[in-house]
Design brief:
The structure is a homodimer of 339-residue chains.
Chain A (H helix, E strand, L loop, with lengths): L5 H12 L14 E4 L4 E11 H4 L6 H19 L3 E10 L4 H18 L3 E9 L4 E11 L14 E4 L5 H11 L5 H12 L5 H10 L2 E6 L4 H12 L2 E4 L8 H8 L3 H6 L7 E5 L4 H10 L5 E7 L3 E5 L5 E3 L6 H5 L12
Parallel strand pairs in A: 3-4, 8-11
Antiparallel strand pairs in A: 1-2, 2-5, 3-5, 6-9, 6-10, 7-9, 8-10, 11-12
Helix pairs in contact in A: 3-4, 3-7, 5-6, 7-11
Chain lengths: 339, 339
């Protein structure tokens, strides 16, 4: 398959399957949907956590199980869809033991409570690697579902928060990077106990202010390129959206803040575009949901993604994900492909 | 996990999760469901085909992909639910090649057309073993959904067809058993191109004549024990429901027809109970859907499953699945467990 290439695999699948008239959004967005009646849409999402590529050292069974659900909830959040029910398939390693199993189930339970949905079924198997595969179900309406493809030149580019904490946290867990006390706690929390931006995603979608949206689970750079490709626009990032304390820590450690910001991953902020005329409204809606929207740039006509530094110099943002997991096969083996 | 035991794993999961009031049917039936509004229920099903345990030698990529969907459709058929949409996650081995990929996608497409649903999304990954994981979505109504738990003593036990062809076919493919020309073609077709009993399952559920139902994918014996356990009844099988030609072939080969009938697997007939007063109606409804219902016995008060031979002798039917795949880890590693 490596020989065929990812693009060719997609082409083959599309060419044979075609698109169903009932499918909405079409193949290639963050979630799949099927038109029920009137403007009602059944939303389905499935993604899988595999311990060897998605669970860094230091993450507990509780945290891994929680993360398996959070990463799926985050995709629904980006579309403005509230999850209602979930199925989970568990592949359990032989050495998990009763304590590990209990921890894991508590992680699933707590994540479902945190985001207000029900665990309604699933199955368990023995498996050499811990695998937690989730299917989420929700409902949306055609006018409310936020796609990847609606950004237009001139739209304001915004995020629900800052980036870089997971870059630092993963480097600490995987490579033993020593973080300063101030950032260390936040960086580890960002990796081990990530949060999906569900409430603000749903509120913004309902208000109709968004023209496109995606989550940043594969890194900010990757998300921007996906939005760019789906919408046929480019992005000019004018403010490096680093989380608090990250710039100082990156500088102290001799890391490039640009790299830390764009090529992180396992982050679950929303990356969105907003009609300029409705920006103030978007800020208010987000504020009511407890989130400060961050304006980081704008959509432009020319496809591609650039960062414009304080000196006015344009630096291209490459379409790549976080490097450490890449070597372990995750981010470049993974793709949202049909069918 | 083997140490903990399957039963203990279930207990732990149940004790931590509890049951959601919105879940219907509850944990442990063939499909999961979530109450939407009025009596409407969103039905979700997910199951996974893994080549090393579910694909016998001689099965093509086309057939494997088709089977991955058929085995999920069969569970919906047993509940009387029509699938509307599906997601498929593909784990593709490196040596699949373009020809194999095309075959596989055509198998998915043809199965979705055969059973009238849309493939609306999914993803692909590289994987050492071919894996085809499917999620199906459908809708049902509380009064129409046929559970495992509704059988009552006195109910008529019925199936949508005869058993034993897959037992012979799998023995031919896995062990090189030489089958006679008459049965050989049918036995291989039963294994390689199985059919789900969707139309008759939906028709019978709508007519309201069924008190319980399950499919026979884990073998007739296993299905009867599951219905028995869920309904709190026993079953007396009075007619060995062998498919045409199977008795003669089993006798010729020196195989025990009882074994061939009860401990097959990878069969997708429906095993159901019918109110005696509505038996004629059930037969008619099935006939209109092109299926001859087969009365094979009845539900009794005492839990357990027995076969009553022509000589009146009672032989207990053990709760076990098909032996060949069992050794390869499938049927005893697999269970419909929460969450």
């Amino acid at each position: 398959m490596a020989e065929l290439g990812e693009r060719k695999v997609i082409e083959i699948i599309f060419s044979i399957l075609g698109e169903s008239p009932n499918a909405f959004p079409g193949l290639g967005d963050d979630v799949a949907g099927w038109r029920l009646w009137d403007d009602l849409i059944a939303i389905l999402k499935r993604d899988m956590l595999v311990a060897s590529t998605d669970v860094p050292p230091g993450m507990t069974y509780y945290q891994a199980a929680r993360k398996a659900l959070v990463m799926n909830v985050s995709d629904l959040a980006a579309k403005g869809v509230r999850p209602l029910a979930a199925l989970t398939s568990l592949g359990l390693p032989g050495d998990l033991g009763e304590g590990g199993l209990r921890e894991l189930i508590r992680g699933l339970r707590d994540a479902s409570r945190e985001y207000g949905f029900s665990l309604i079924g699933g199955d368990t198997n023995e498996c050499p690697d811990l695998v937690i595969a989730c299917s989420l179900f929700g409902l949306s309406r055609e006018g409310e579902l936020v796609l990847r493809s609606g950004a237009r030149p001139g739209d304001i580019l915004a995020t629900t928060g800052g980036f870089g904490l997971t870059y630092l946290g993963l480097k600490a867990l995987l490579e033993g990077l020593e973080l300063g006390g101030g950032v260390r706690k936040e960086a580890l929390r960002a990796v081990l106990m990530p949060k999906a931006r569900l409430e603000v995603g749903v509120a913004l979608a309902r208000s109709g202010v968004l023209t496109s949206s995606i989550d940043s689970s594969d890194g900010l750079a990757w998300s921007l390129h996906e939005l760019s490709r789906a919408s046929g626009v480019g992005f000019l990032v004018e403010d490096l959206p680093l989380a608090q304390g990250v710039l100082e820590e990156a500088t102290r450690l001799g890391l490039d803040p640009f790299e830390v910001c764009f090529y992180g991953g396992e982050e679950y902020e929303l990356v969105m575009t907003v009609e300029p005329a409705r920006w103030e409204e978007a800020v208010e809606v987000a504020q009511e949901a407890g989130v400060e929207l961050r304006k980081i740039g704008r959509a432009v006509e020319e496809p591609g993604v650039w960062f414009k530094g304080p000196d006015g110099h344009l630096r291209p943002v490459e379409a790549r994900g976080w490097e450490h997991f890449r070597a372990r096969g995750r981010h470049h083996g993974r793709s949202s492909l049909p069918p």
